[in-house]
Amino acid sequence: MTIAEFEAAGEVRWKGVLLALWLDGQDDWERAHAVAQDIEDSDGAWVHAYLHRKEGDEANATYWYRCAGRPMAKGAVRTEWEAMVLELLSRREGA
């Protein structure tokens, strides 16, 4: 699946971290954050970290990147978002 296909898919198609990323892609940060903060695994922490980085809360983002076992992302948040979507989709499709 491509980024464009992911973005065009409806909300009902996704759950968990992919739902959080889809909502964020629809400019619904609040709902994306609500979904991400209820996911208690490293992928949930990763999405949570990304959302706080996007928000500009670097201290909170740093904490969540640590919880996810990932380094603090650098560069454009859109680039990170796309990389996250593609990685998480590939794991889902490979399952």
Question: Would you write up a description of this structure?
Answer:
The chain has one domain. The chain has 6 helices and no strands. The chain has helices at residues 3-8, 16-25, 29-36, 42-55, 58-68, 77-94. The longest helix is centred in the last third of the chain and has 18 residues, at 77-94.
Silhouette: globular
- Rg over CA atoms, rounded to whole Å, is 12 Å
Order of helices and strands: HHHHHH
Count of all domains: 1
Q: Helix count?
A: 6
Please bin the fraction of helical residues: over 70%
Low-confidence spans: none
Mean pLDDT: 93
Strand content: under 5%
How many runs of DSSP E, i.e. beta strands? 0
Structural class, by secondary structure, is mainly alpha
What is the CA-CA span between the terminal residues? 14 Å
Largest sheet, in brief, is: none
Summarize the structure in short.
The protein has 95 residues and is an all-alpha fold.
